[in-house]
Amino acid sequence: MHPRNIHRDGYDMQQLSETYPALSAFLSLSPAGKTTIDFADNAAVIALNSALLARHHGAQAWSLPEGYLCPPVPGRADYLHHLADLMTRDNRDVVPHGPLIEILDLGVGAGCIFPILGRSLYGWSFVGSDIDEVALANAKKICSDNEALSEYVKVRLQKNQSHYFKGVTGSDEQFDAVICNPPFYSNEEEALEASDRKWRNLGKSNNAGRNFGGTSKELYCPGGELSFIRGMIAESFFYARKVYWFTTLVSRKEHIHDLRRALQKVRPTEVVVIPMSQGQKSSQLLAWTFLDDQQRRHWRDSRFWGN
């Protein structure tokens, strides 16, 4: 994990249960004698997330609608730390910090996880969009229930599923970065096969259940993540002066080659691929910008990256 990720050395379950007592019901001893939870139990994972967000990230009120995806806190934090490094590299080694930095989260989700972490870690402001009204209603409630979020996080419905930026960004808005965790799978069958693999990797019987959380809109879309990101790349061209860094998570390394080819068609001035890993899981952060050196300097100065 990223060196600044406070979760890189694991979890102190006893400490977390003191902050969030409901976690205690899910604690058990591993064969090695370590206090842990059953990570195949969705309710236990949600309780762990609630404890992590309350203790380390200031979200005292956090919940999910039944059946929605429970995003892993360490992995999402890693994404933001690497994004901060990318912005710092362009800012004379000064980390852009504070509410003047505005981030657009494509697919904010019911858990509103990126805005929670981004506010906690770097004090950034967020606009979160989603195609799911139930997810947005829950994200909005999380923001209203947590004072640190209410003023600095806005959520917006994307009414047209074929668009990414159009319909959720104002004509006079600019964003220092776009972030996105796209749907991984092409269809329900792929998603269920992946769920089965997770059960087997955890040494569980398939009969124990197949749902790790996640609705159809969260888990899959036509063409999967490759098609989704290609569409995002194509539309980003029309917002080239509205965003400094466009970024997205890419779960499959083999997709990077095809995505580089898609980027060549819109001619960004720079493309960056950042490898990330959490335990046995690896992924990539793909980033691109259309700004030249002079435009970047003007952007940083006019939007107060140094403050």
Read across the widest sheet, the strand sequence of neighbours is: 5-4-3-6-7-9-8
CATH homolog superfamily: Vaccinia Virus protein VP39
Largest sheet: 7 strands, mixed
- What is the global morphology? globular
Spatial extent as radius of gyration: 19 Å
* Contiguous helical run count: 11
- Domain unit count: 1
The strand count comes to 9
Helix content: 25-40%
CATH class: Alpha Beta
Strand content is: 15-25%
Q: How far is the N terminus from the C terminus?
A: 27 Å
Structural class: alpha/beta
Query: What sequence of helices (H) and strands (E) makes up the elements?
Result: HEEHHEHEHHEEHHHEHEEH
Report the CATH architecture.
3-Layer(aba) Sandwich
Contiguous low-pLDDT stretches (5 residues minimum) are 207-212
Instruction: Return the CATH topology.
Output: Rossmann fold
Please state the average pLDDT score.
90
What does this protein structure show overall?
- With 307 residues, the chain is of the alpha/beta class.
- The protein has a single domain, classed as Rossmann fold.
- Helix content is 39%, strand content 17%.
- It is built from 11 helices and 9 strands.
- Helix 3 packs across helix 4.
- It is globular and about 55 Å long.
- 37% of the residues are buried.
Summed up:
The chain is 39% helix and 17% strand. With 307 residues, it is α/β, with parallel strands linked by helices.
Secondary-structure blueprint of this entry?
Layout: H1 13-19, E1 28-29, E2 35-36, H2 42-57, H3 73-89, E3 102-106, H4 113-122, E4 125-130, H5 133-145, H6 147-150, E5 153-157, E6 175-180, H7 188-201, H8 216-219, H9 224-236, E7 243-250, H10 255-266, E8 270-278, E9 281-289, H11 293-302
Parallel strand pairs: 3-4, 3-6, 4-5, 6-7
Antiparallel strand pairs: 1-2, 7-9, 8-9
